[in-house]
């Protein structure tokens, strides 16, 4: 698990970018804040589930199904984690 007190938004973004690039076999440069997970990256439910599991395991947070369903872009995923960590 990552030390939450020193985790910046940029670090979270890089982790998400790396995960998605590996999982979806994409060039990391294609993954930006405004990229839509389903529409732009063709991520399916399993891809999104694996991303949520990776975020939960890495950062020691939890995300409900409702919260996960509301995450549509890379930036929203990053912001969710960053906000959750800043509340600790």
What does this structure look like?
With about 90 residues, the protein is mainly α. The chain has one domain: Non-ribosomal Peptide Synthetase Peptidyl Carrier Protein, Chain A (Orthogonal Bundle). Helix content is about 55%, strand content about 0%. The protein is built from four helices and no strands. The protein has helices at about 10-25, 45-60, 65-70, 75-85. Helix 1 packs antiparallel against helix 2 (about 45-60) and helix 1 crosses helix 4. The radius of gyration is 12 Å and the shape is globular. The model has no long low-confidence stretch (mean pLDDT about 95).
Blueprint (SSEs and pairs):
Layout: H1 9-24, H2 45-59, H3 65-69, H4 74-86
Brief characterization of the structure:
By secondary structure, the protein is mainly alpha-helical. The chain has one domain: ACP-like (Non-ribosomal Peptide Synthetase Peptidyl Carrier Protein, Chain A), CATH 1.10.1200. It has helices spanning 9-24, 45-59, 65-69, 74-86.
List the defining traits of the structure above.
Non-ribosomal Peptide Synthetase Peptidyl Carrier Protein, Chain A, mainly alpha, 88 residues
Number of helices: 4
Count of individual domains: 1
Strand content: under 5%
CATH architecture descriptor:
Orthogonal Bundle
Ends: how far apart?
15 Å
Q: H/E series, N to C?
A: HHHH
Biggest sheet details: none
Kindly name the structural category.
Answer: mainly alpha
Q: What is the CATH first-level class name?
A: Mainly Alpha
